[in-house]
């Protein structure tokens, strides 16, 4: 797998680099205290002239004024992986890591993502979209009749399981919808797929893109929430946990999902494997995945023989602007 990447990278040729971290989204603390510092340390150790930069504290125009030549986006959530920062960097003419403006804007919207995947014939759970103005007891109580129980309720523009609930009964629906509405003007109610939770990372672009080994997630109590993602050591991340046939099937689906959205650089597809028939279903695509000690892309890359430092250097080497190689 490592042979698919050109890891012969001259760090000096990458120029002065800003690691964008923090920001103002609901996931800013993870970016500021975990992902950002991890990436920065790896780049510095690899010989890159890298510096931290928090867009919540400094105007992005300062990047140009201070001579930064490329950016590693280690921001999560809104104003980080939703196309807004990417658009600003496009205007500044500073190449950046990860997907471009359009793919980033689509992928941050789980409902729009599902629409594209369904149009391309890719499996994703059935869903109902609500607007904040639609929230009412009668409407909420009707959703379990449409989707069955359990139901996953979440804000469609947030990550890291922010505002997400698993609804087991009718009496829990209204509270779950109201919680999600605290984070978003829209609410995604999604059919629950019972089975193992998986994730599959993808590197590259277009025909050269390829999937890394699939990771199976086993969280305590089966609840892979914000706490279990970042602040516990009990969650297990297993590679090589699927049969060869299942592994290939999930990788093919993740790669198709990545290409469907027009992603580049890197991304991570979250997938549920339905227990009843081993059919994989796409949940979402992360275009600026976490880079913490618990994060899934580094775990998957390690299983492919790619170290954390090599991964960071390679991603940085792929930084570019829309429409430019």
TrEMBL record:
PANTHER family (UniProt xref): D-ALANINE--D-ALANINE LIGASE (PTHR23132), D-ALANINE--D-ALANINE LIGASE B (PTHR23132:SF23)
Enzyme class: ligase
Keywords: ATP-binding, Cell shape, Cell wall biogenesis/degradation, Cytoplasm, Ligase, Nucleotide-binding, Peptidoglycan synthesis
Protein name: D-alanine--D-alanine ligase
Top-level taxonomy: Bacteria, Pseudomonadati, Pseudomonadota, Betaproteobacteria, Burkholderiales
Provenance organism: Roseateles oligotrophus
Cofactor: Mn(2+); Mg(2+)
Membership in a protein family: Belongs to the D-alanine--D-alanine ligase family.
PROSITE patterns for the chain: ATP_GRASP, DALA_DALA_LIGASE_1, DALA_DALA_LIGASE_2
Compartment annotation: Cytoplasm
Family matches, as InterPro entries: ATP-grasp, ATP_grasp_subdomain_1, D-Ala_lig_Van_CS, D_ala_D_ala, Dala_Dala_lig_C, Dala_Dala_lig_N, PreATP-grasp_dom_sf
Family matches, as Pfam families: Dala_Dala_lig_C (PF07478), Dala_Dala_lig_N (PF01820)
Catalytic activity line of the entry: 2 D-alanine + ATP = D-alanyl-D-alanine + ADP + phosphate + H(+)
UniProt pathway annotation: Cell wall biogenesis; peptidoglycan biosynthesis
């Amino acid at each position: 797998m490592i042979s698919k990447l050109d890891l012969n990278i001259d760090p000096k040729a990458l120029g002065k680099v800003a690691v964008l971290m923090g920001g103002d989204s609901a996931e800013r603390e993870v970016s500021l205290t975990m992902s950002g510092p991890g990436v920065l340390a790896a780049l510095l150790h690899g010989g890159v002239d890298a510096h931290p930069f928090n867009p919540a504290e400094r105007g992005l125009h300062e990047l140009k004024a201070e001579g930064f030549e490329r950016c590693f986006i280690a921001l999560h959530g809104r104003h980080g992986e939703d196309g807004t920062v990417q658009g600003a960097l496009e205007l500044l003419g500073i190449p950046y890591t990860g997907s471009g403006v359009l793919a980033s804007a689509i992928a941050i919207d789980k409902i729009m993502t599902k629409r594209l995947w369904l149009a391309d014939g890719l499996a994703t759970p059935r869903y109902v979209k609500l607007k904040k103005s639609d929230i009412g007891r009668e409407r909420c109580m009707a959703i379990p009749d449409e989707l069955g129980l359990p139901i996953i309720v979440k804000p469609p523009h947030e990550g890291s399981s922010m505002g997400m609930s698993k609804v087991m009964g009718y009496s829990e629906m209204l509270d779950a919808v109201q919680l999600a509405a605290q984070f978003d003007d829209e609410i995604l109610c999604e059919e629950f797929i019972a089975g193992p939770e998986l994730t599959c990372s993808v590197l590259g672009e277009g025909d050269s893109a390829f999937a890394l080994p699939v990771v199976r997630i086993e969280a305590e109590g089966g609840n892979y929430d914000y706490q279990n993602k970042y602040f516990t050591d009990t969650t297990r991340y297993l590679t090589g946990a699927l049969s060869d046939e299942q592994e290939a099937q999930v990788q093919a689906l993740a790669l198709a999902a990545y290409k469907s959205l027009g992603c580049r650089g890197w991304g991570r597809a979250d997938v549920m494997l339905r227990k009843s028939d081993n059919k994989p279903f796409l949940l979402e695509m992360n275009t600026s995945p976490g880079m913490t000690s618990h994060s899934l892309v580094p775990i998957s890359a390690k299983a492919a023989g790619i170290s954390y430092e090599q991964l960071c250097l390679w991603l940085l080497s792929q930084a570019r602007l829309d429409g430019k190689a």
